[in-house]
């Protein structure tokens, strides 16, 4: 990168409730593609989350601490394209596990392009053995007493064993 060239910054957004090994795989790989990766943790007013925003940010920060590259977590609310404009991002990273994800994400990418044409959407597939993992399924398995150790990192698994905070 020359002295006049801006760093290539990408944004990976989600609720990350909880952060899964699939999310971590996408973060690690995206961090290798860009000069900086911002993991935008949605406030998610529209959802009843298992973990509050500060817990979800802490999970992302803890996982990112051991990764190479510049990765940081920030909270966000509103349109992801507004955050991209604010940060000067060149790309949005989206993890896709299957055709259902791709269909939804392709529609979102097209709409995002209308909102901010200079920001590209980059799709990354997690490793094959992680593609079946979703935060929704992890929360349900943990709620029913199942072992989620192969789906989330040990710190997240421990957090899933504690009772949810009451709002």
Description of the structure:
By secondary structure, the chain is an alpha/beta fold. It has helices spanning 21-33, 53-65, 80-87, 99-115, 135-143, 154-160; strands spanning 9-14, 36-42, 70-76, 91-95, 120-124. A 5-stranded parallel beta sheet has the order 3-2-1-4-5, sandwiched between helices. The longest helix has 17 residues, at 99-115. The protein starts with 8 loop residues before the first strand and ends in a 7-residue tail after the last helix.
Q: What would a concise description of this structure say?
A:
40% of the residues lie in helices and 18% in strands.
Layout of strands and helices, then pairs:
Elements: E1 9-14, H1 21-33, E2 36-42, H2 53-65, E3 70-76, H3 80-87, E4 91-95, H4 99-115, E5 120-124, H5 135-143, H6 154-160
Parallel strand pairs: 1-2, 1-4, 2-3, 4-5
Tell me how many strands there are. Answer: 5
CA-CA gap between termini = 46 Å
The averaged pLDDT comes out at 92
Largest sheet geometry? 5 strands, parallel
What kind of assembly state do the chains in view correspond to?
single chain
Keywords:
167 residues; alpha/beta; 5-stranded parallel sheet; 6 helices; 40% helix; 18% strand
